[in-house]
């Protein structure tokens, strides 16, 4: 294990996690809003925003699924040291991290039950390029309409039809983060 | 302050509450179960709201706490003190200066903005509880959107009283899906539930958290021929003269004299200092 495993956590855990959570809550409550999420310094293979998000929300009670592109020893060691979260299969995951195509198929994740739709997975979609805004969003958290860059349209439209079950998504790019909860209706732009 | 972790709760508890808040925001109006902790105050004093506030606050926040609209009641003062001591944050009584507002049973008269968060203390989160006592059944009713019983209750109001007599904790439908208890706010406040701020609801004893993202569609249940009415006492405030604020009735003596005053103390004080005068302004302090 390299020394980097033990560094890169929150400098002041209680306060940094509180600030990070407010950013996370804000972007999930307002689909389309893009914010900076920093504080954690994960090893290579994980973006700053995704690493900080996992530090903020994960602990021994949450199973993490690492998609093949982020499933590296450094990432596992770093997450284990800082969160002690167990690594699980996609079917059991509370949080799944990876590139969009590496996370497929979406049907393998838990979408909750009719009585407990909250027992569902949250996907953290990493991207290395910032795409053009190709989707129009409507629903809770949005004043009339918002726009967002999404890696797909049809899959998110299908996810919304499962409501109140379904998956929630965070999109991370460097230290930027935005989110798409299951409650949002997505239509293609233009 | 160094005697406590920031904002009193331990980090793992805050993470658990934060995850529940996020699920609540993703499924507006749905009651997310959470492992509510013992708090250093009795149930009914806002243990749910306090836990949600503790998981939400940052050192930069300015906290306002109201109890039935008032900043100066025991409950509000003690919760403000609690967070001053455990989180070292600044508190205020002014709605416009607060970034987080914890409330017991009122929405402030002043419109909230996008940078504010409203945290409700909720006694009974389940709107169907007094109609169906079994949790297993109410879960099923929510999953099947079986809300006929709630309409029957409102109908019985009309058949007995000639109008929908439910005046607080008036049920609402959120984003066309879940029927939600807006906590016992007066139904006068129901139209304000669609707002720019994030709204979080915490029920400590009942171990539930639910939420409304900004601008979520919130509709008060009613009938075509008996539409919802946001009612209030047909008076003006006797201190500041406000015509459209929610009023408390105060008995003045044993000869039937009474006065009506704004329940929102900050709103009323601001109006009085701006020179607005009500019927009894100057006579009663």
TrEMBL record, chain A:
SUPFAM superfamilies: PhnH-like. One of its GO terms (biological process) is organic phosphonate metabolic process. InterPro entries: PhnH-like_sp (IPR038058), Phosphonate_metab_PhnH (IPR008772). This is Alpha-D-ribose 1-methylphosphonate 5-triphosphate synthase subunit PhnH.
TrEMBL record, chain B:
It is an enzyme of class 4 (lyase). GO terms for molecular function: 4 iron, 4 sulfur cluster binding; alpha-D-ribose 1-methylphosphonate 5-phosphate C-P-lyase activity; metal ion binding. It catalyses: alpha-D-ribose 1-methylphosphonate 5-phosphate + AH2 + S-adenosyl-L-methionine = alpha-D-ribose 1,2-cyclic phosphate 5-phosphate + methane + 5'-deoxyadenosine + L-methionine + A + H(+). InterPro entries: PhnJ (IPR010306). One of its GO terms (biological process) is organic phosphonate catabolic process. It comes from the Bacteria. Belongs to the PhnJ family. This is Alpha-D-ribose 1-methylphosphonate 5-phosphate C-P lyase. It comes from Epibacterium ulvae.
């Amino acid at each position: 294990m390299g020394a980097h495993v033990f560094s890169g956590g929150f400098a002041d855990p209680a306060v940094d996690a509180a600030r990070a959570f407010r950013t996370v809550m804000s972007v999930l409550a307002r689909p389309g809003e893009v914010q900076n999420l920093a504080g954690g310094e994960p090893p290579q293979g994980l973006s700053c925003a995704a690493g900080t998000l996992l530090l903020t929300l994960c602990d021994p009670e949450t199973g993490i699924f690492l998609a093949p592109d982020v499933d590296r020893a450094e990432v596992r060691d770093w997450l284990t040291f800082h969160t002690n979260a167990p690594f699980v299969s996609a079917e059991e995951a509370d949080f799944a991290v990876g590139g969009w195509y590496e996370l497929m198929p979406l049907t393998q994740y838990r979408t909750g039950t009719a009585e407990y739709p909250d027992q569902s997975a949250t996907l953290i979609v990493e991207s290395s390029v910032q795409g053009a805004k190709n989707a129009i969003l409507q629903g809770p958290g949005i004043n009339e309409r918002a726009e967002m860059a999404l890696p797909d349209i049809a899959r998110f439209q299908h996810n919304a039809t499962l409501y109140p079950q379904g998956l929630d998504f965070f999109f991370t790019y460097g230290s930027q983060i935005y989110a798409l909860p299951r409650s949002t209706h997505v239509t293609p732009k233009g | 302050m160094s005697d406590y972790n920031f904002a009193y709760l331990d980090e793992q508890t805050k993470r658990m509450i934060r995850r529940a808040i996020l699920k609540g925001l993703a499924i507006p109006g749905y009651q997310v179960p959470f492992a509510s902790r013992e708090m250093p105050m009795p149930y009914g004093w806002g243990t749910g709201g306090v836990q949600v506030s503790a998981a939400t606050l940052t050192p930069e926040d300015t906290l306002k706490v109201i109890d039935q609209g008032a900043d100066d009641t025991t409950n509000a003062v003690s919760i403000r003190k609690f967070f001053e001591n455990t989180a070292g944050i600044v508190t205020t009584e002014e709605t416009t200066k607060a970034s987080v507002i914890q409330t017991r049973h009122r929405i402030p008269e002043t419109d909230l903005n996008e940078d504010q968060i409203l945290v409700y203390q909720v006694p009974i989160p389940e709107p169907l509880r007094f109609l169906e006592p079994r949790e297993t059944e109410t879960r099923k009713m929510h999953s099947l959107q079986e809300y006929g019983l709630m309409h029957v209750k409102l109908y019985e109001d009309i058949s007995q009283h000639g109008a929908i007599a439910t005046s607080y904790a008036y049920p609402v439908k959120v984003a066309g899906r879940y029927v939600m208890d807006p906590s016992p706010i007066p139904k006068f406040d129901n139209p304000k539930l669609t707002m720019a701020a994030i709204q979080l609801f915490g029920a400590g004893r009942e171990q539930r958290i639910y939420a409304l993202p900004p601008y979520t569609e919130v509709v008060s249940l009613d009938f075509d021929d008996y539409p919802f009415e946001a009612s209030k006492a047909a008076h003006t405030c006797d201190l500041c003269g406000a015509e459209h604020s929610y009023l408390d009735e105060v008995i003045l003596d044993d000869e039937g004299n009474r006065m009506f005053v704004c329940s929102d103390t900050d709103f009323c004080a601001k109006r009085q200092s701006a020179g607005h005068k009500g019927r009894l302004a100057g006579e009663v302090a």
